[in-house]
Protein: EFR1 family ferrodoxin
Amino acid sequence: MIFCFSGTGNSRYIAKRIAEALEDDIIDLNARIKARDTSSIQTGQDVILVTPTYAWRIPRIVSAWIARTEWRDARRIWFVMDCGAEIGNAARYNREIAARKHLCDMGTAQVIMPENYIAMFRAPQAKEAREIVARAEPCIDEIVSHLKNGEAFSAPRNNLYDRLMSGPVNPIFYRVVVKAKAFRAGDSCTGCGQCVRRCPVNNIRLIDKKPVWEEKCTHCMACICYCPAKAIEYGKRSVGKPRYHFEALRYEK
Structure:
C-alpha cells in the first residue's frame, strides 16, 4: 500500500508513478489528515510512504498521523521523499518512525523535484520545472525497481550538514519560520474557496468571501500555489515569484 501526502503535487506524481508500476493503491493522506481520520487501515505487509521534505524531515503532520493510526499487517516500510535540494538526515528520523511502528525500515530515497517553497525560495518557471521532472524520472525508475524486487534503498548522504539541518535546525525552523501570519489575499481574490478546500489542516476560513489564516499552518504552499487568481501573497517574500503546482506543467513522461 502507498501512502501519499502532497502539498503542490510533486509527491502525488511520484506516488502515481509507483502505484502504476506496482499496480498498488494510494491512500491520500491529505484527505485523511483534513478529515482527522485516524481509523485503522489494512495495509498488507509492505508500506510505501511518499512525502515532500519539510525542514529536512517528513512533514510533522504526517508523522503525527502515522503515530495515531494503526496499520494492520504492515511489516516493512520504504520512505520516498521529494525535495527542491536535499533531505538532510531525514533517514535517521524515518528509522525511528519505523521502529515505533514495529516495522522493518527499508530505507529512504530522495527525489529532486521542482521547488515550491516560495515563502523562502523561488519556484522555477514551467519550462525549467519540466526539465527538473524529466531529470527525476531515472531516479523514480530506480526507486520502482527496488520496490518491485523488495530491495532496500541505498543509504542516502549523511554528513555533518545533514545531521545539523535535520537535527537541531528542524525544530527551530518550525518554531521561527512555519507561521501563517504573513499570508494575505489581495483585491483579485474571488472568494472561490480553493484555498480552504486545499488546506490539509483546516487552517483557512472564508470570512466575507476572503480567506483568513489561523495558527495551524504547515507551510505546504497549497493555498498560495493553487490560487487560480494568484491573489495570495506571503508577505513580501512571494511578490513577483512564479507559483508552482505540478498539474499546471501538463507534464507527461
